[in-house]
Amino acid sequence: MAIGRSPQSSSQTPDQGAARRPSRARGIPEATVARLPLYLRALTALSERSVPTVSSEELAAAAGVNSAKLRKDFSYLGSYGTRGVGYDVEYLVYQISRELGLTQDWPVVIVGIGNLGHALANYGGFASRGFRVAALLDADPAVVGSSAAGLPVRHMDELEEIVETQAVSIGVITTPPGAAQQVCDRLVEAGVTSILNFAPTVLTVPDGVDVRKVDLSIELQILAFHEQRKAGEEPDRGDSVLDRAPGPVRAAAAKLRRAAGAATAAKAEPAGKGGKPPKGTDGELSAVMPA
Amino acid sequence: MAIGRSPQSSSQTPDQGAARRPSRARGIPEATVARLPLYLRALTALSERSVPTVSSEELAAAAGVNSAKLRKDFSYLGSYGTRGVGYDVEYLVYQISRELGLTQDWPVVIVGIGNLGHALANYGGFASRGFRVAALLDADPAVVGSSAAGLPVRHMDELEEIVETQAVSIGVITTPPGAAQQVCDRLVEAGVTSILNFAPTVLTVPDGVDVRKVDLSIELQILAFHEQRKAGEEPDRGDSVLDRAPGPVRAAAAKLRRAAGAATAAKAEPAGKGGKPPKGTDGELSAVMPA
DNA sequence: CCATCTTTGTGCACACGTTCACAAACGCAT
DNA sequence: ATGCGTTTGTGAACGTGTGCACAAAGATGG
């Protein structure tokens, strides 16, 4: 089990998941697929208010997207609208559900029942979308045996059996980063072909296995970037304007940096980084929590 | 405080956050910004192993991206590499940190201390990246007063004061979906200009406020879509091939659908949807949990 | 100081995604 | 039936992102 491996793509904003596959088996663009759940949510809300039809304009507003984009997205699914009227809510709910594969049952295992694992186990959005938590797993004997969301936490050793007997094809990893790849390997080996990874780790998987990653830290950092921009251009300018300069000047600067070594950088950084972590610098996350 | 509102863009894969702003103030593409945290994580790991330099090839592998893309990304920051050698790890860590605004302190408030709120409060990746949890807030008296991750949970009414006195500019919403917009409004009103939303709701905010959304349900649905594709083309074909046909045939089908009404669709769906929810269909989430 | 080897930085072509804008299609009133 | 207003579906232009491939720049050894 190690032939044809390939690291999954990136994390959030970019394509992610379904690595190299264009995924347009019969045509639906990846960007559209990513928006279908959004539409579905908005439509479900309308459905519950017994709204019979919606225009692309209304639905787009509810989903927070451009109406032209929405229409084009729907056009990939087929022509489910009626000109001059709009879209039949119930019918569209069904079509999108079917396209996303939500009309069938998806057993899911959650590995790593820490804070986040608990949160996910209690997540109400699962059952209503065809997802069923088949089992909660953990390697820590202290956690095994307890229960979360009415389900017992079982030991990792039962993983293979559970995946096989319940035909689980989707696994959720909420372990500390150090255990993620190992858990991933076991999941794949057992037969799981789709993985949702909350650990801040780049997972390597064989071809044919999809990985999607959710990383809170990344989201916050992106927010910080934009926030910084809003707060007027750089309040503190780290160092040398040399680095923006082209040619030999830059090269010299580079050489100096290598000579100076880690000392300079370490001093310039917020927390201690050069030596040993002061307290809880998290060697890529404090091993206590994923996400 | 209600002029010039605008719903944030989409959710995951697309652009999201920074709604209409091209965000290339001085040039850095949004896609690149989204990858910087990835590079930073890989670099931090190398730094802790005291690796002095990396080539774009090595770093790209560690971050799970194409090396050419990585080099192009770095080229937007400036020329921080040395040809024939690679990049100085420590120096690059610093440069990226600075670019992302991680060299300064970012106080953050978390609103909604349920399962997920707890998980986030315990998240180790905060402190090490310049994020500091300024306060945990909740509206439920039963939760207020308890503590999470060593911090006391305070009442929502203290929000305004906390935001002002501690100069909080980033808020995290982990409330049930019904409360999200309301909480969002209060955060914005109090002065928060960046929001990370875990509730499955499309938030409407004034211009100048960034919203990023993390939605577990959406990720799973995207996985299900690809999983379905892998399991051979549609095992059960919902109904009519008519819908793929163009022209009057389709129109007739549409008319029939409207006539038939919700009954057909409801019957075809997984859970009960037409009438009242059977048990926990989650009117857009069971109100118990966000994420 | 020159030759050779390594690795960056980037021009270019292409793929993908977004948005505009409009004709075709439909409902409805007359 | 005919005309009018509405809304879809989509062709086409545009912008963004990706990846190849290579010249330029530096390191290294003689």
Helices and strands, with pairings:
Two copies of one chain form a homodimer.
Chain A: E1 5-7, H1 30-48, E2 53-54, H2 56-63, H3 67-77, E3 81-82, E4 86-88, H4 89-100, E5 106-111, H5 115-121, E6 131-138, E7 147-148, E8 151-155, H6 159-165, E9 170-173, H7 177-190, E10 194-197, E11 204-206, E12 210-213, H8 216-230, H9 248-260, H10 262-268
Parallel strand pairs in A: 5-6, 5-9, 6-8, 9-10, 10-12
Antiparallel strand pairs in A: 1-11, 2-4, 3-4, 7-8
Helix pairs in contact in A: 1-2, 1-4, 2-3, 6-7
The structure holds a DNA duplex (30 and 30 nucleotides).
Order of helices and strands of chain A: EHEHHEEHEHEEEHEHEEEHHH
Beta-strand residue percentage of chain A: 15-25%
**pLDDT < 50 stretches of chain A:** 1-25, 234-247, 261-291
Protein chain pair with the most extensive contact, residues per chain: A-B, 138 and 139 residues
Q: How many strands in all of chain A? A: 12
The number of helical elements of chain A comes to 10
Distance between the ends of chain A: 27 Å
Average pLDDT confidence of chain A is 80
Which radius of gyration of chain A do the C-alpha atoms yield? Answer: 24 Å
What's the main sheet of chain A like?
A: 7 strands, mixed
Question: Helix amount of chain A, in percent?
Answer: 25-40%
Strand order in the largest sheet of chain A: 7-8-6-5-9-10-12
Oligomeric state of shown chains: homodimer
